[in-house]
Amino acid sequence: MNHPIVKIVQDSGCQSYVVGCPETRRALLVDPKVGRRETIRDVCERFGLTPVAVVDTHTHADHLSDSVAFLNDGLTLYMGARTACRRDLKRVRKDDTVSVGSLELRVAEVPGHTDDSIALIGGGVAIAGDTLLVGGLARADFLGSDPAVLWESVRDVFLALPDETVVLPGHDYRDLPFTTIEAEKAKNPAFRFASGPKYAESVGAVRGAGNTPEVDATLATNLEEAPDLPDSPHAVVACCGSGEGGGMAPREAEESPAALADRREEFCARGAWIDVRDAWEFEAERIPGTTNVPLGELGFHLDALRRDGPVVLSCLGGVRSMTAARILRRLGVLTEPISMSGGFREWKATGLPTE
């Protein structure tokens, strides 16, 4: 089977996912957030995907889950066996399987952030929820959290996976939307500690300190059978900062379409111009000679993308290409990424060639 179709739906640091089977075009929705329902439905339509199931990887404290809306669409909801959620759901345990078409995802229980936290593993990905993040672990100062248990469960579940496994975390605070097991083994400060208790001592989490009135209200709503949900996004309470110092990752080099146009054939001849837009965008119109690898699927092509020297990354407006440049440098794939400022929109407006 080919790698899964992956589309990341971001909102204020939260990451939801549409994960599709390329053979059957069936899709799984992961951690859908209130306020992004139509975006998720639009993604499925544009990719020709039929959503059949939804997963909440845990009971969320930082945003309202929109799983009930997709339940009303006829989808099956999966959550961990330890959840207290009262919705019509299927409880899954360690080594159960969630199947979406030909894509089979194994359930792993990863307690510590919440007691009911699960991950889904298969098809070359680990959908981690709020457990293993890029350069850190999840926050563990809520009632029911335990940083030592979190460290141990993350170690046991994730560090045994193949190095090339792509990790899709529930949060992205630094414009680094995914990672790999290899990168986290090498760079995640949490794994410098010898044990869960040592890690817990380092973070100094006070159990219950994170339970503000807003957090408690969000948790209560996410446990309800049929809550009355708003249409707009719910304010986010940050669950975990990056273990790499926090703040946005540094910007990478940028060049304008006009500055890159004369070198387009040179870059394209050596496969060094990557368009990270979604496939449907690329198929509609593109810069001649460029190669398409959507942002959400870059992790499946790291070896093929590996280059020394300058490589151009482009998208529609310059945002996704900067994200791609940041993550590909962090993963050691590119040494000189260049994000095309203004993206395809500016390239076309300048009158440069398209096909």
Explain what the structure shows:
The protein has 355 residues and is of the alpha/beta class. It folds into two domains: 5-223, 4-Layer Sandwich (Metallo-beta-lactamase, Chain A); 253-349, Rhodanese-like domain (Oxidized Rhodanese, domain 1). Helix content is 27%, strand content 25%. It has twelve helices and 19 strands. The strands form four sheets. A six-stranded mixed beta sheet has the order 1-2-3-4-5-6. It has a six-stranded mixed beta sheet with strand order 7-8-9-10-13-14. It has a five-stranded parallel beta sheet with strand order 15-19-18-16-17. The mean pLDDT is 94.
Topology:
Layout: E1 5-11, E2 14-20, E3 26-30, H1 37-47, E4 50-55, H2 67-72, E5 76-80, E6 90-92, E7 97-100, E8 103-109, E9 118-122, E10 125-129, E11 132-133, E12 136-137, H3 147-158, E13 166-169, E14 179-180, H4 181-187, H5 196-203, H6 213-223, E15 253-255, H7 257-261, H8 264-269, E16 273-275, H9 279-284, E17 291-292, H10 302-305, E18 307-314, H11 319-330, E19 334-340, H12 343-349
Parallel strand pairs: 3-4, 4-5, 5-6, 10-13, 15-19, 16-17, 16-18, 18-19
Antiparallel strand pairs: 1-2, 2-3, 7-8, 8-9, 9-10, 11-12, 13-14
